[in-house]
Amino acid sequence: MRAPIPLPSLLTKRGITMAARTQDGSAGDVDYGTAGSGYASYRRPDEHVARFIARALGDARSVLNVGAGAGSYEGAARTVTAVEPSESMRAQRPARLTRAIDAVAEDLPFADGEFDATMALFSVHQWSDVAAGLREIRRVTRGPVVILTCDPTRVRDFWLHRYAPEVLDTEARRYPSVQDLASGLGGDGAVQTVPIPLHCTDGFNEAYYGRPEMLLDPGARQACSAWSFVDDRVRERFDTSLRDDLDSGAWDGEFGHLRRQPTYEGSLVIVRATP
Fold first, then answer.
1. Within 10 Å of residue 75's Cβ, how many Cβ atoms?
2. Rounded distance, CA 84 to CA 48, Å?
3. CA quadruple 227, 230, 233, 234: dihedral sign
4. Local structure of residue 268 (DSSP, 8 states)
5. What is the C-alpha separation between 274 and 261, in angstroms, rounded?
6. What residue spans of the chain are helical by DSSP H?
7. Separation between Cα atoms, residue 64 and residue 67, nearest integer Å
8. At 29, is the pLDDT very low, low, confident or very high (cuts 50, 70, 90)?
9. Which of 149, 150, 100, 83 is nearest to 121 (CA)?
10. Which pTM was predicted?
11. Which of the 8 DSSP states describes residue 208?
12. Where does residue 45 fall: left (phi above 0), alpha (psi -120 to 50 degrees), or beta otherwise?
């Protein structure tokens, strides 16, 4: 493992220049030293989603996990090497998982073609330079690259947009288009929608499609990075308006069928590309 990169700093390699990392080491637009506390409690791997990831990885034996966070879904692979720049997120990894390497997607400390497959799960929107990160991932990967992300053209279809449009507008701006991800990886690409189960244990915003009360929990909101881009005024307005509609029955009158809907096809997708 290479020595930690001094912080703050500018990282440069192969013509890549990235903005300074935070003191926590976070390299994207969110400081997980502040926003990531308690992340592992709310963002627990969901078995249904994990099966989609495992199928996309196929029979790969050595898998690189880029932006590994607290290690969700590493059980979907056989042998995992994890990369995570945030010190806070690395500290939340369970002891049963391998230690994560302090590195960023745009500058991976591995040889060409070192891994059978690579996965990047809910992390591409955190990269400082998506195109550079995709090139690096393809460089070190012999086989499939599996990206779990959200389609920015579909995030505003979720009922949350009625109550906190600023949050989903932020998500729509941050997530790269699925077309850009597929073309950036090259080779043969495919995009698959991942249905979200009603009791999804991975607490991203759409995971609560049929459990709106969960988003009244500040900890649940904090585990979704888009909420860190809005101010207290937005959070207070959301809290008040959703509570009022739940108390009056207005939310259930319009969206109550979602409480009984076993899965929800929203913006969650897997982009899979092979050389």
1. 15
2. 24
3. negative
4. E
5. 34
6. 32-35, 39-42, 47-57, 87-91, 130-140, 160-163, 165-174, 178-185, 218-222, 232-248, 250-255
7. 10
8. low
9. 149
10. 0.86
11. G
12. beta
Q: Which residues lie below 8 Å from residue 22, measured CB to CB, with a gap of 6+?
A: 7, 8, 31, 33
User: From CA 92, how far away is CA 76, in angstroms rounded?
Assistant: 19
Q: What's the CA gap between 124 and 211, in Å, rounded?
A: 27
**Residue 59 CB coordination number (10 Å):** 8
What is the chain's length? 275
For 234, half-sphere exposure in the C-beta direction (CA atoms, 13 angstrom radius) is 18
Which stretches of 119-257 are DSSP H helices? 130-140, 160-163, 165-174, 178-185, 218-222, 232-248, 250-255
Q: Each residue of 75-120: pLDDT tens digit?
A: 888 899 999 999 988 998 999 999 999 999 999 999 999 999 999 9
Query: Measured between alpha carbons, how far is residue 132 from residues 38, 105, 136 in Å?
Result: 30, 8, 6
Which sign does the torsion angle of CA 149, 153, 157, 160 carry?
Answer: positive
Q: What are the structure tokens assigned to 17, written together?
A: 């220049």
> 216-245: buried (b, 16+ CB within 10 Å) or exposed (e) per residue?
eeeebbbbbbbbbbbeeebbeebbeebeeb
Q: Looking at per-residue confidence, does 40 or 66 come out higher?
A: 66
Report the DSSP beta bridge partners of residue 273.
Answer: 145, 189
Distances (CA, A) of 205 to 145, 171, 192: 25, 10, 19
CB 43 within 8 A of CB 204: yes
Check whether 185 has a pLDDT greater than 90: yes
